[in-house]
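Q: I have two molecules that I believe assemble together. Could you output structure tokens for the complex as a whole instead of separate predictions?
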Amino acid sequence: MSAVITPPESAATPPAGPLHQRIVWHLSRSPKRELWLAWATMLVFYNMFFPIFFIVAQVQPPPQPTWDHAMQVHWFNERHLGIPLGLGIIFAIGGMNSINNALIAYSMRRMSITRVFGYSYLIIYALSAIPGLYLLCIALIVGTLRPERNPEAIEWLYDFAFLSFDGTMGVFLIGSLIWMVAILIDKNRVFPKWFGYLNLCNALTELVVAPCWIFRRGVLAWNGQIAWWLDMVVFGVYQVTFIVMLFQMIRREDFGTGPLPDLPRKKKVAA
Amino acid sequence: MRRIDGELILLWTLPATIVIWLAAFVLFPGFMPPMSPTMSANEVAAFYRDNAAAVRSSMIVFNWFGVCLVPILILIVMQIRRMAHRTPIFSYAMLGCVASGPALFLIANVCWLLAAFRPERNPELTQLLNDFAWITFTILVPYLIGQSVILALAIYFDDQPNPIFKRWVALFNLLVAAALVPAAFVGVSLTGPLAWDGVLSFWVKNIAIAVWIVVMGIVLGQAVYRERAERGSRGEELVDA
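A: Yes, here they are, computed for all two components at once.
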């Protein structure tokens, strides 16, 4: 379906020189510049994403679901600037996530499988950002907007935010399974099969967070060892792994339709 | 095979969309001028009590026609596909942005309609719905910024003698993206330029969106008509795979 035009492959060799010059060349002139740019965007996005939530806005790790109204109001008051500023940055850079999803969809396009996988992933993850990210950020921002607001309304926003964050499950569950099946049935060797199973691990964490809708305390609550900590550790490992996997995929990319070639053994620097 | 029959119909829905959106925008009593975030709960409740009919009618129109920009954005996706790129990354990324803006807008839309549904409700709850609506409406920029930047990059990488969009369109999109950024920080203050009725969060953001729609409508129309002319001169009905 795509009208991809192949530009002439002149000047396809990276120039010798300092690292920053080579990086600029890869992002602006390399035949793989579109892929490298998407990958670099992904790297920047995730390097900003976590520090913003944990350090600037300080909304993660999540607070206790069992806190009373006074504690909830105090929690919002302590973050009356961090939340709108930090989450404001998330809204400003959120569009980068679409480029991340596009790169992952591209990895499925490069496989020996139907395009349905890539498109499905793209749409599911575009949708996932609304309940899984933006709505909870809006609830937190509205929560900090008026410290004098009725504490019951503040509690509603508090529950909305953290249950929306933990409890948005299906889009990530099915999205990860789509990538997993794609990797496992692919004959173009785009990713190693074990990475397919790592997708399964990530998908399974979406099952174990479901009890956060029921329990207010213990390991299954929205801040519990299983529903939050286990989920976060698995996602952290998964995320670092897929960034490395996509890096390797771009290095090996030959823009063909058959199996992805292995990297030449002596080549040490990213292509 | 990419077929182009019907593209003109979709393209010419844009002027109708603009007229309908403008009419609904003017009809909503909270936009001209924008409601102040410093209104008390009782004032907000009184606003919905006094203006229930206008809030309902304008927001029902927005609910009907809020997604009308999607076909236009998909037409832009199709033009990105014609660009001299090696991968479909940019059209994929643009496709991922298309639906999220309307989805967030519809959440704001529902909150406004809910606030007007029972004007006798506890004013604090009406104020909560009003806050949720205004913050969501103002902060729905991530994918609008995203699509402008993605389009700018796609144009920049379109290395061919007759690029689909001229280079100034890329710069224009970056400028619009920059104009939308302050609205992301609407939660910082209830007064001043960043507040939801402020210069940056309301006027600059909404004027930037309006200018983007008009300018992109024109350059998209030129690209669509040029493609048809090129195909006509080559005697082609269908191209591409």
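A: One point stands out. The two ends of chain B are 5 Å apart (CA to CA).
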